[in-house]
Here is the input.
Amino acid sequence: MKIKPLHDRVLVRRQEQEEKTAGGIIIPDTAKEKPMKAEILAIGDGLRDDAGKLVPLAVKVGDMVLFSKWAGTEVKVEGEELLIMKESDIIAIIEDAKAA
Here is the structure.
């Protein structure tokens, strides 16, 4: 199934967080918070400004981003849990995704 978000929305896949702390303590599933880091899988075309001109999104497919804690709507696509959220819910683009 192929999904194309509308307007200023993006489709993201959460990135799993570490199961151990830096000190080596294993975090049980019940104590884990959902990660706020994700990879962008699809983006909408953007919003129209007051003059009717299309303003493209600042993010692109493949970007790693950080988003606000309660952002988005969870959707299940082919058995995988994904999120659809507005671009305004994204708080940062991770420039060097390998370092993060």
User: Anything to note?
Assistant: DSSP finds no helices and eight strands in the chain. The mean pLDDT is 83.
